[in-house]
Amino acid sequence: MNKLKEKKYWKKNLKYLTILLSIWFFVSFVFGILLVDQLNNLRMGGFKLGFWFAQQGSIYVFVILIFVYIKLMNKLDKEFGFNEK
Amino acid sequence: MSIQVWTWILVGITFTLYIGIAIWTRAGSTKEFYVAGGGVSPLANGLATAADWMSAASFISMAGLISFNGYDGSVYLMGWTGGYVLLALLLAPYLRKFGKFTVPDFIGDRYYSNVARSVAVFCALLVSFTYVAGQMRGVGLVFSRFLEVDINTGVIIGMIIVLFYAVLGGMKGITYTQVAQYCVLIFAFMVPAIFISIQMTGNPIPQLGFGGADENGVYLLDKLDGLHRELGFEEYTSGSKSTLDVFLITGALMFGTAGLPHVIVRFFTVKKVADARKSAGWALLLIAILYTTAPAISVFSRTNLIETVSNKEYEKMPEWFGNWEKTGLIQFEDKNNDGLVQYLADAKKNELIVDKDIMVLANPEIAGLPNWVIALVAAGALAAALSTAAGLLLVISASVSHDLIKKMINPNITEKGELIAARLSAVVAVCVAGYFGINPPDFVAATVALAFGLAAASFFPAIILGIFDKRMNKEGAILGMIIGILLMLFYMLKFKFDWFGGGTKEDWWFGVSPEGFGTVAMAINFIISIIVSRFTVAPPKEVQEIVENIRIPSGAGEAHNH
User: Fold this and answer.
1) Mutation choice for A interface testing from B78, B238, B279, B545 by most A CBs within 10 A
2) Residue B151's CB: how many other CB atoms inside 10 A?
3) CA–CA separation, B105 vs B99, rounded Å?
């Protein structure tokens, strides 16, 4: 019973990780590096978009990703009763 | 008041503060010495992690590096922040649940082998020593430029301060001094940035001023691209490195960040797993403030520099130009004898050499900001260098006293004996670091960047597989770590230090630079570990239970010594 619960918790955790890390990969490696030239044809105010992702945007997204992860995991811990006071 | 008087005042105040905190929070047990007693709040730990992380390289060199490399400099920005996402999601919570004192502790227990532990200790010492030498050098640099003391005296003053609070306070003392140091360094970094952003774009937020326009409505970045084209440089917003290399260097810095022992241990100091996640979030948020400002400073200072010096009379250069010329970090040679400064991409015609390390330090002077702001930057740079040095010294001392002496040489050592050993090894480590600060091997700068490659190639796969792959055994992990780090060492010695026949850029394997090779060595480590583990016996049942246990956050308890 307990084992099953732990397995389910772990599976859900892995699912969150996959989603969050895909975003992590896209904003930095894809938008900031692989597609930077294409995105540089678009502009956002004074920035070329690819350049902005490489030097600003990716960092903002990283911060958001960690806080989303904290939220999701705190909820998950509570759901499974794995949270600590 | 002069810059020098202001600097003495500000450095004096901040140093007194650090020492006061150290006396107030000194450590009484090994647990306090290694993990600050395990009761640090997530916000305090986030602040301390941020200060620990942002070194002399982040504070002094990074904006300058980006300033001279433009888009290519993005590797540092993405690499040194993206690593925290990996730390928060893949490492910190599980290592906190595991609840020991050091990274070699985890490797040794998870892979039930003292060979694995020794390999980990070796890697931790190698990474930490290369890193710490650069910090002491940074301290010396600031002292010599702003306080006009000899660079060696500067290093010694820095050593005494670090010695005092690292040896006395251990992790507990370091944590709370780092909290203070974060506040000093971020204030010192932001004040000039805000001033200059207002001057150049009218926008007080540097991150927005970065994309802002000057009084004629021309976007700053477009203006800078134009200036670069005129002088023959590569456009600022497009780089000259190959896409593959940018990709791999960013990767090596990210995975290396997540594998650096002095960052990982910080997550052992909080109370529970949820706090470990939360403090990783705080840490990155606090780091991001500096990391999103730095590229703005790069653009401001680059534009300012070109507009101030390019094709202007040498005789009429502002005062800072002469000051930095004295240190040898700015060099001018009037090749065509026209009395003007020609700053060009073409090395034959270029007359000006500016060391990239001075951009942050000289920036307030170039922009003509008041003297107290310039002094503040000096105090901030010292805070950044000292906080990182202290964190690294603690890893070195814990590796010796805990992993080597307590776990391998003399397991019967008393708590008191271990604490004395920890303090003594901290003293020795400071002296060694100071020695390298005074007599820097000329490869320090090169090696600091490569320390990340070493960490990525050795620790990162072993830790990740230890958590996410229950089947991973000692044979796979040890072989992976050894081959990973040797391969990285070989590539770096060959192409950076001319060993094994040396080689030039053309000889790089598939065009991969030594800085980017960490990602390749890491991938090879992963592959070898997985293949070898599948052909050898599964880890014992107790170990598999440890893995199941660290995946569940509840019941972490405090970090313990068995």
Assistant:
1) B78
2) 18
3) 10
- Asked whether residue B276 is assigned to any structural domain, the reply reads yes
Tell me if B260 is assigned to some domain. yes
Nearest CA in chain B to A7: B548
Instruction: State which residues form the domain around B461.
Output: 3-544
Span B124-174, pLDDT tens digits: 888 888 788 777 777 777 777 777 777 788 888 888 888 887 787 888 888
| Sign of torsion over alpha carbons B103, B107, B110, B115 | negative
Check residue A16 and give its pLDDT: 97
A13, part of any domain: no
Residue A15, in any domain of the structure: no
Quick: pLDDT tens for B306-352.
988 888 999 888 888 888 888 778 889 898 888 899 999 888 889 99
Instruction: Specify if A34 maps to a domain.
Output: yes
Residue B309 lies in a domain: yes
Residues 6+ apart with CB under 8 A from B411: none
Band of residue B390 on the pLDDT scale cut at 50, 70, 90: confident
- Interchain pair B78, A28: CB under 8 A: yes
Per-residue HEC secondary structure of B184-225 comes to: HHHHHHHHHHHHHHHHHHCCCCHHHHCCCECCCCCEHHHHHH
B414 CB-contact burial (10 Å; exposed 0-12 / middle 13-18 / buried 19+)? exposed
Report how far residue B462's alpha carbon sits from residue B199's, in angstroms, rounded to the nearest whole number: 49
- Contact assignment for A51 to B78 by CB distance below 8 Å: no
**A36 to chain B: closest CA residue:** B238
The verdict on residue A73 lying in a domain is: yes
Question: Which residues does A contribute to its contact with B (CB < 8 Å)?
Answer: 6, 9-10, 13, 17, 20-21, 24, 28-29, 32-34, 36-37, 40, 44-48, 51-52, 54-56, 58-60, 62-63, 65-67, 69-70, 73-74, 77, 81-84
Q: How many domains does chain A have?
A: 1
How many Å separate Cα B126 from the centre of its chain?
15
**ipTM exceeds 0.90:** yes
The 10s digit of each residue's pLDDT in B83-95 is: 999 999 999 999 9
- Domain with residue B304: its CATH number is 1.20.1730.10
Residue B559 or A6, more confident: A6
Give the DSSP H/E element, type plus range, for residue B89.
Answer: none
The answer to whether residue B562 sits within a structural domain is no
CB contact under 8 A, A47 and B210: yes
Number of domains in chain B: 1
